[in-house]
Amino acid sequence: MSGAEPGFTRVHPLSPFLRGGLVLVALAVTGGRQLAEGGGVGWPWWLVPVVFVASLASAGVSWWFTRYRVGADELRLDSGVLARRSRRVRLDRIQAIEVQQPFLARIFGMASLDIETAGGGSDSEVTLAYLSLRRATDLRRHLLVEAGREGGLDRAETQNDDDELLHRVTPGLLLASQLLRTGPVLAALSAMAAATVAGVGSAAGVPGVVARLTSPAAGAVLSLTVLVPALLAVVTAVGKGFVEGYGFAVRRSAGGLSVRAGMFGVGSAALPVQRIRGLVITEPIVWRWLGWVALDVTVAGVAVRPEQDRRLATTLVPVARRADARRLVAQVLPGLDLDALPVTGPPAESRWVDPLARRVLGMGVDEVHVLTRRGLLTRRTDIAPVAAVQSRGLRQGVLQRWLGLATVDWHLPSGPASPVAPHRRAEEAWQLMLGPGPPPPSR
């Protein structure tokens, strides 16, 4: 391209318009919110095109000075107008490459390329924005192949045959699952109960201020005051989960799994099977009656920034029927048989510490896996390969110590999975801590 050094390429010419469009969208959202609240927008109308043109010009200048080049052993990215910056990403340090499509980029067929390198932290993340979707896909494939040759990724991860669709979440099931989570259900029931109590008619024979506050009209207003904000909060939470999980699909390539989801902005994340260190099975109370579960995984060595990408990088499926979930579990923890692993509850003494939740507590350990179960309303089952456990911990509260009980924790890399077995007998807890061999003498 004219003006660029040999071998360098600029990102797509539409990039400045996409970046400027983000500013325009932000202004529209802010102004719309202020108008909805009954006030003015707070700035003259002519300020909107001025800000848009200024942001567009700034993005255009930034685009002109942003270039990248793919070499034999590194990716080089130069950027900056006054203060120049040159990033060099060694191909043998690449851990994951994802194609992302925010809302505006999706409309124009654009995408960004997010490159994750080993080491973690802000310096381990490089973004190329924006490229055409085809260019982003082709460049991702090329970098993965080169990284595999350099030793940055397992060779199996670099294969790019057509991905096999393992599971797709239907919009109806996703919406129903968000509505029937424990949080929204309890919030809606609590709000309706509070509104019902607040809306009770006037109390006969109660004089003065109390009678006026408990009149039918005041009760109706108070009911709406309690009910509407709570229902809005429920709708917001349900809507957010539905939009972010829309179109959720799990695919299998030659070297691992990948997930992709999003209604307005499509995001994707790789789930390298060989780096999965733990699994969480979540079952809200209503889901258990319907046979639904959610699956999350702990993946070692992959750092993520935005909240949605963090969820994608740890979500195997947001909701699935048990039969479908079992097939997905077999993909990430082959050889695990949930029915064959014996699970035992805590001893009877635990009723003095946790009389309600003790009925759902459970733990199972064999030579290959450790499994723990807890949660009264929302039940969660944490599973981890014994080989993935980094360390173990034992805790004893005052009452636990008096009852001869202890809690054992299995420590994994950072992620959703965190196996913990509360209120086990102290001898058993020490046995789990120290591994095979006779338990220490009780004191």
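The above is record 1. Record 2 follows with the same two-line structure.
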Amino acid sequence: MNYDPIKNTLGGFFNRSPFWRKTFYRLLDLLLLRTWHIHREVRDWKRKAPANAQILDAGMGFGQYSYFLHRLQPDWNILAVDVKEEQVADCTQFFNKLDAKNVKFEIADLTSFVRKESFDFALSVDVMEHILEDELVFRNIHQSLKKGGMLLISTPSDQGGSDAGDEHEESFIGEHVRNGYNIQEIEDKLRRSGFSKVEAQYAYGAPGKISWKLSMKYPIKALGVTKAFFILLPFYYLLTFPFCYLLNYLDSTSHHATGTGLIVRAWK
């Protein structure tokens, strides 16, 4: 299923004013389980981070993580890049309205983007499953990090992370080039790319899988059938949000022996 048109419709609706854009970000923070994991990891990194850290948001999409980083520490300098020109233009316009001078946006292909030893921290959230030449991207980010810099990745695992039953079945999210990473596979690829220390753990355990279906899969599939479901979305989430919130909390505070997502930390 290609759900870019659905994402763009939702993004367009909430992009009518800075207030609605911020509301959209807040809803994503609450509903998307990966956001819970990423926020926790970034706050952990912040404890030892330089006050004026240089950060790369590699594949920023709607820009919600750049916004989170900007609000978490206004002294950080953030470069957010994406291959989609319309996303870069959209985020640039919004952040200009905020007068957020510490956040810059650029069009860039991660398979060729390198800024040697420029960043203390790099973030890649649900990006690598869209890029076939993943090791090339890992090498580029490794070159772009300062010594001791850290890369944080969120990506689907091969335990059903793209919601495909087997490796030959199409992903629920049709833009994926792979149906998730084996945990050993991504660790090995990062080490081959030069990272000296790699830690990977499962996310989207039993609670997370239920939350994903309630908060994302079912409403997206309904919108794919008819845009009229957009009118019912507020009522749908009014009913399901308390359950999703509890499930997200349980998943983000628990250890999982397996799961459909991976959180990966790699240091230069």
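Residues 229-252 form the longest helix (24 residues).
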